[in-house]
Specification:
single chain, alpha/beta, Glutaredoxin, five-stranded mixed sheet, two-stranded antiparallel ribbon, 6 helices
Length: about 180
Protein backbone atom coordinates (compact mmCIF):
# COMPACT_ATOMS: atom_id res chain seq x y z
CA UNK A 1 0.00 0.00 0.00
CA UNK A 2 1.44 3.34 -1.05
CA UNK A 3 2.01 6.18 1.39
CA UNK A 4 0.23 9.39 0.35
CA UNK A 5 0.07 13.06 1.23
CA UNK A 6 -1.46 13.53 4.67
CA UNK A 7 -0.34 10.16 6.07
CA UNK A 8 1.50 10.14 9.39
CA UNK A 9 4.87 8.41 9.27
CA UNK A 10 5.83 5.98 12.00
CA UNK A 11 9.34 5.82 13.39
CA UNK A 12 12.07 4.29 11.23
CA UNK A 13 14.85 2.48 13.11
CA UNK A 14 17.71 0.96 11.10
CA UNK A 15 21.51 0.59 11.17
CA UNK A 16 23.43 3.42 9.51
CA UNK A 17 26.78 3.34 7.75
CA UNK A 18 28.49 4.90 10.78
CA UNK A 19 27.75 1.60 12.55
CA UNK A 20 25.17 2.89 15.02
CA UNK A 21 21.40 2.54 14.98
CA UNK A 22 19.45 5.52 13.66
CA UNK A 23 15.90 6.54 14.58
CA UNK A 24 13.76 9.15 12.86
CA UNK A 25 12.23 9.89 16.28
CA UNK A 26 14.95 12.53 16.73
CA UNK A 27 13.52 14.44 13.73
CA UNK A 28 10.24 15.34 15.44
CA UNK A 29 9.87 19.10 15.25
CA UNK A 30 11.76 19.57 11.98
CA UNK A 31 11.11 19.07 8.28
CA UNK A 32 12.99 16.27 6.51
CA UNK A 33 13.01 13.98 3.50
CA UNK A 34 12.97 10.20 3.47
CA UNK A 35 14.52 8.90 0.27
CA UNK A 36 14.37 5.26 -0.80
CA UNK A 37 17.14 3.99 -3.05
CA UNK A 38 17.93 0.74 -4.80
CA UNK A 39 20.94 -1.49 -4.10
CA UNK A 40 24.17 0.06 -2.75
CA UNK A 41 26.23 -0.03 -5.98
CA UNK A 42 23.40 1.38 -8.15
CA UNK A 43 24.94 4.08 -10.40
CA UNK A 44 21.77 6.21 -10.39
CA UNK A 45 21.49 6.03 -6.60
CA UNK A 46 25.10 6.99 -6.04
CA UNK A 47 24.74 9.87 -8.49
CA UNK A 48 21.73 11.15 -6.51
CA UNK A 49 23.59 10.80 -3.18
CA UNK A 50 26.48 12.72 -4.77
CA UNK A 51 24.03 15.46 -5.84
CA UNK A 52 22.44 15.66 -2.37
CA UNK A 53 25.83 15.87 -0.68
CA UNK A 54 27.06 18.55 -3.11
CA UNK A 55 23.91 20.66 -2.72
CA UNK A 56 23.43 20.10 1.01
CA UNK A 57 24.51 23.66 1.83
CA UNK A 58 21.50 24.90 -0.19
CA UNK A 59 19.03 23.19 2.14
CA UNK A 60 17.40 25.09 4.99
CA UNK A 61 18.84 25.09 8.49
CA UNK A 62 17.77 22.03 10.47
CA UNK A 63 16.61 20.12 7.38
CA UNK A 64 17.97 16.64 6.83
CA UNK A 65 17.63 13.70 4.51
CA UNK A 66 17.24 10.09 5.60
CA UNK A 67 18.48 7.78 2.83
CA UNK A 68 17.44 4.11 2.86
CA UNK A 69 19.03 1.44 0.69
CA UNK A 70 17.84 -2.03 -0.23
CA UNK A 71 21.20 -3.56 0.77
CA UNK A 72 23.06 -5.25 3.63
CA UNK A 73 24.98 -2.83 5.87
CA UNK A 74 28.48 -4.11 4.97
CA UNK A 75 27.75 -3.62 1.27
CA UNK A 76 26.22 -0.18 1.87
CA UNK A 77 29.29 0.94 3.81
CA UNK A 78 31.54 -0.25 0.97
CA UNK A 79 29.66 1.69 -1.72
CA UNK A 80 28.40 4.85 -0.02
CA UNK A 81 31.01 5.84 2.57
CA UNK A 82 33.00 7.61 -0.16
CA UNK A 83 30.28 10.28 -0.35
CA UNK A 84 30.98 11.44 3.22
CA UNK A 85 27.31 12.35 3.59
CA UNK A 86 26.34 14.57 6.52
CA UNK A 87 22.93 12.89 6.58
CA UNK A 88 22.15 9.31 7.66
CA UNK A 89 22.39 6.49 5.13
CA UNK A 90 20.53 3.43 6.38
CA UNK A 91 20.48 -0.26 5.45
CA UNK A 92 17.05 -1.88 5.13
CA UNK A 93 18.28 -5.31 4.05
CA UNK A 94 15.00 -7.00 5.03
CA UNK A 95 12.94 -4.39 3.13
CA UNK A 96 10.82 -3.72 6.22
CA UNK A 97 10.25 -0.04 5.43
CA UNK A 98 10.18 -0.64 1.67
CA UNK A 99 7.08 -2.76 2.31
CA UNK A 100 5.52 -0.27 4.74
CA UNK A 101 5.99 2.62 2.27
CA UNK A 102 4.79 0.55 -0.69
CA UNK A 103 8.01 0.92 -2.69
CA UNK A 104 7.49 -0.56 -6.13
CA UNK A 105 9.56 -2.94 -8.25
CA UNK A 106 9.51 -2.72 -12.04
CA UNK A 107 11.36 -4.37 -14.93
CA UNK A 108 9.97 -1.69 -17.25
CA UNK A 109 11.23 1.02 -14.86
CA UNK A 110 14.74 -0.42 -15.00
CA UNK A 111 14.75 -0.56 -18.80
CA UNK A 112 13.19 2.91 -19.09
CA UNK A 113 15.82 4.36 -16.76
CA UNK A 114 18.69 2.89 -18.76
CA UNK A 115 17.29 4.28 -22.00
CA UNK A 116 15.97 7.63 -20.75
CA UNK A 117 18.90 8.42 -18.46
CA UNK A 118 21.77 6.85 -20.39
CA UNK A 119 24.03 9.97 -20.17
CA UNK A 120 23.55 10.11 -16.37
CA UNK A 121 24.31 6.40 -16.14
CA UNK A 122 27.56 6.86 -18.08
CA UNK A 123 28.52 9.91 -15.97
CA UNK A 124 27.95 8.00 -12.75
CA UNK A 125 29.99 5.02 -13.90
CA UNK A 126 32.84 6.65 -15.83
CA UNK A 127 33.22 9.99 -14.04
CA UNK A 128 32.42 8.90 -10.47
CA UNK A 129 33.31 5.20 -10.67
CA UNK A 130 29.91 3.85 -9.63
CA UNK A 131 29.92 0.48 -11.38
CA UNK A 132 27.11 -1.93 -10.44
CA UNK A 133 29.48 -4.88 -10.06
CA UNK A 134 28.33 -6.12 -6.67
CA UNK A 135 24.53 -6.19 -6.61
CA UNK A 136 23.20 -6.99 -3.16
CA UNK A 137 19.53 -6.07 -3.11
CA UNK A 138 16.89 -5.99 -5.80
CA UNK A 139 17.71 -4.55 -9.21
CA UNK A 140 13.99 -3.96 -9.75
CA UNK A 141 13.41 -1.55 -6.83
CA UNK A 142 12.20 1.88 -7.89
CA UNK A 143 13.24 5.00 -5.93
CA UNK A 144 10.81 7.10 -3.89
CA UNK A 145 11.02 10.37 -1.96
CA UNK A 146 8.81 11.66 0.85
CA UNK A 147 8.81 15.20 2.21
CA UNK A 148 7.82 15.06 5.89
CA UNK A 149 6.78 18.00 8.07
CA UNK A 150 7.70 18.63 11.71
CA UNK A 151 4.71 16.56 12.91
CA UNK A 152 5.67 13.49 10.87
CA UNK A 153 3.00 14.15 8.22
CA UNK A 154 3.73 13.47 4.54
CA UNK A 155 3.63 16.73 2.58
CA UNK A 156 4.60 15.06 -0.70
CA UNK A 157 4.95 11.41 -1.73
CA UNK A 158 6.91 10.86 -4.94
CA UNK A 159 7.24 7.36 -6.38
CA UNK A 160 9.85 7.18 -9.15
CA UNK A 161 8.73 5.91 -12.53
CA UNK A 162 12.19 4.60 -13.44
CA UNK A 163 15.40 3.68 -11.66
CA UNK A 164 16.78 7.22 -11.69
CA UNK A 165 13.55 9.17 -11.13
CA UNK A 166 13.60 11.22 -7.91
CA UNK A 167 11.78 14.29 -6.68
CA UNK A 168 13.41 17.29 -8.40
CA UNK A 169 16.16 18.77 -6.21
CA UNK A 170 14.60 22.25 -6.56
CA UNK A 171 11.41 21.03 -4.84
CA UNK A 172 13.45 19.49 -2.03
CA UNK A 173 15.41 22.72 -1.54
CA UNK A 174 12.20 24.80 -1.55
CA UNK A 175 10.56 22.52 1.05
CA UNK A 176 13.73 22.50 3.18
CA UNK A 177 13.53 26.26 3.62
CA UNK A 178 9.97 26.25 4.94
CA UNK A 179 9.95 27.08 8.61
CA UNK A 180 8.29 24.38 10.75
CA UNK A 181 5.03 25.70 12.22
CA UNK A 182 5.94 24.53 15.75
CA UNK A 183 8.93 26.88 16.02
Amino acid sequence: MAIKKGDKISEIVLPQISGSEYSTKKLIGQNYMISFFRFASCPFCNLRIHQLVNQYSEFGIGFTIVALFDSPLHNLIKHTSKHQAVFPILADEENKYYKIFGIKKSVIGVLAGIIKRFPALMKSMFVYGNFPIEIKGSMLTMPADFLIDENGIVVEAYYGKDEGDHLPIEKVIEFSKQEPENK
